[in-house]
Every structure is written in C-alpha cells, then in structure tokens.
Amino acid sequence: RMFGKLFISLLVLLAFHHDLTDAQKKKETLLSEKVTQMMEWASKRSVIRMNGDKFRRFVKAPPRNYSVVIMFTALQPQRQCGVCRQADEEFQVLANSWRYSSAFTNKVFFASVDFDEGSDVFQMLNMNSAPTFLHFPSKGKPRRSDTYELQVRGFAAEQLARWVADRTDVQIRVIRPPNYAGPLLLGFLLAVIGGLAYLRRHNLEFLFNKNVWAFSALCFVLIMTSGQMWNHIRGPPYAHKNPSTGQVSYIHGSSQAQFVAETHIVLLFNAAVTTGIVLLCEAATSDIDIGKRKIMCVAGIGLVMLFFSCLLSIFRAKYHGYPYSFLIS
Questions:
Q1: Whole-prediction pTM value?
Q2: Distance (Å, rounded) from C-alpha 242 to C-alpha 129?
Q3: How far apart are alpha carbons 134 and 227 in whole angstroms?
Q4: Last residue of a domain, one of 119, 138, 168
Q5: End of a domain among 168, 187, 220?
Q6: Range(s) of the domain holding residue 266
Q7: b vs e for 198-217, b when ≥16 Cβ sit within 10 Å of the residue's Cβ?
Q8: Distance of CA 192 to CAs 85, 199, 329, Å?
Q9: Does residue 147 sit in the same domain as residue 219?
C-alpha cells in the first residue's frame, strides 16, 4: 500500500512537471513570436504604428522581455495639432538613430498610437492630451517616472534620448539628417552685409552711427530676455492643444516651462514697453514742436502702462499666488 501511494505521488509530480514544461514552452514560443514580429515591423518602420489590438497584444499582454517607448499623438489634419507634428519629427529622429545604430537590439522598440486609430487605448489609459510619451518597461507596470515630462523638458530628440537612457539603460546617440538652412541663411546674411558695405565703400559712416548700434543691441537684448535661448536648448512645443476640448494654450501654466508662442508674445510686449520708454525720453529731450512732444508723451505712457500690465498678467498666470496686478487682473 505504501508503494502504491508513492507511485501515485510520483505520477502526479511527473504530470505536474509535464504541465509546467508545456506551459513554459508555450510562453517561450509566444514570446519568440512577439519579438520576431516586433523586429520585422521595426525593420520596415523605425516607429511602429499601433492600434488598439496591437497595443493590447504586444505591449499590455505578457510575456514581454522588451521595453516599448510609445508616443500618443493626434496627427490627422482635422485635429489641427501642430505640436504633434513637431514632436513626431523629433521622435522619428530618435527612433531612426536607434534603429540604424550598431548597438540596435530587441531590448527597446519605439511605437506610436494615433488618437484616430487607437482611441480605445487613450480611454484605457485615461489620457486626454497629446502628444504624450510613455515608457512600458519589460517587467512590471509603468511608474510615474515612465511618463515623460513634456512641458518641462520639451520634445527635442536629445532630451528624449536622455529620458530613454534613464528608464532603459540604453544609450542612443542622436544623429540628425544634415540641415543646410542655418549655414545658407548665415551665408546669405553675410553676403547682404558685404554687398551693402561694398556699395557704400566710399561712405562707411553708417558703421559709426550710434543709433544703428543701439537698435542692434536692443534687438539682441529683447531676443535673449524673451527666452529664445531656453527654446533653443529645451525645444518646447509652439503651443498646446487639448485634443478633447480643442482649446489651444499659448501660455504655459507653470513657472518651470514655456511655449515658443509665449516667448514671441513676451518679446512683443517687451518691445512695446521699450518703445514707450523711448518715446518718453524723446518727448523730454527733443527740440520738436511742443504739441508733438505731448502726443509722444501720452503715447509713451499708454504703451508702458498697457503692455507692462499685460506682462504682469502673464507673470501672475505662471506664478500662482502672486498678489499684485495692474490694470488687468
């Protein structure tokens, strides 16, 4: 009887081990099929386009031993999401840099889900804005740090590469296609300046005109103080459009970030305040008719008051709790 019990127990263990082995083989086979399919798609497109079915099968459902970085976007013309197109270009640069590098492996894949092709995925993730970048790790669920801080870091490929390296330990060297627009523009500008200097070679007094240099310096200061250098470094979106409501925001609600449109607005407001101050200075020191000087004075005061109030209003919108306002609350 004891021998019979041992024999039955052995049979049960063998059957259980056989079931585990079969389940493990099925899991490995399924994983191999998924990786093979992802590699095949990546060989055709650096950014794999996904809909709801592909997302559930290749990203959400186990098994999975690879990470997926997904851009959720809205690229259809009727969505009018200019920021999405700009972010898509940078995402393509990043994905191509990884796909065609010598270090490319199946450890990380890049994909995109368009709102019009995968609205169910947006609903599944409770997502109501685009573009949004999410990292789905090979093990476990995405954490808070797996959501890219687009409003703070911008969508430049270099910034995205740093975030991907932080989340996956995969270092991607961003390689951009050659862009000759900058050198051509610089060459054209130098040619124009050289041509003007050649035409005026017998009369170069304009080079010593203090008004010319003052205006050039003022333009440079206005450009720098409006945040253009920050835009160049961080690469923020021009504006933000909520795909659900269609509302476009030109002013970022945080003091830690900004939109490109916001810097243009601040640049114009600063220029208007500066113009008002120049008019006031001219009204006080000029020898022109007293009536014209009064007009210049009133115009200068109006420009300074109105646009300084606008600048203060933008400051209040970004620094919540700031107590002071002027004309515009």
A1: 0.59
A2: 5
A3: 28
A4: 168
A5: 168
A6: 208-318
A7: eeeeeeeeeeeeeeeeeeee
A8: 34, 11, 46
A9: no
Q: How far apart are alpha carbons 312 and 322 in whole angstroms?
A: 10
Same domain flag for 228 and 121: no
Tokens 């993730």, residue? Answer: 125
- For residue 64, the tally of other CB atoms under 10 A from its CB is 19
Q: What spatial distance separates the first Cα and last Cα of the chain, rounded to whole Å?
A: 92
Among candidate residues 101, 87, 122, the one with its CA nearest the CA of residue 46: 101
Spatial separation of the C-alpha atoms in residues 311 and 14, rounded to whole Å: 78
Residue-by-residue pLDDT tens, the chain, 329 positions: 555 555 566 555 555 454 556 667 888 888 888 889 999 999 899 999 999 899 998 988 888 889 999 999 988 888 777 788 888 988 999 999 999 988 888 899 999 999 988 889 998 888 888 889 999 998 888 888 899 988 778 888 888 999 999 999 899 998 887 766 667 878 888 898 788 777 777 777 767 778 888 888 888 888 888 888 777 766 677 777 766 676 788 887 777 778 888 888 999 999 999 999 988 988 888 888 888 888 889 999 999 999 999 988 888 888 777 777 777 76
Residue 6 resides in a domain: no
Task: Tell me the CATH number at 45.
Answer: 3.40.30.10
Specify the DSSP class assigned to residue 326: B
Which pair of tokens denotes residue 79? Answer: 């969505």
Report DSSP state, residue 75. -
For residues 215 and 236, give the distance between their C-alpha atoms in angstroms, rounded to a whole number: 29
Residue 308: strand, helix, or coil = helix
Which residues on adjacent β-strands are paired with residue 240?
249
Distance (Å, whole) CA 115 – CA 242 = 12
Is 271 domain-assigned?
A: yes
What is the total count of domains within the chain?
2
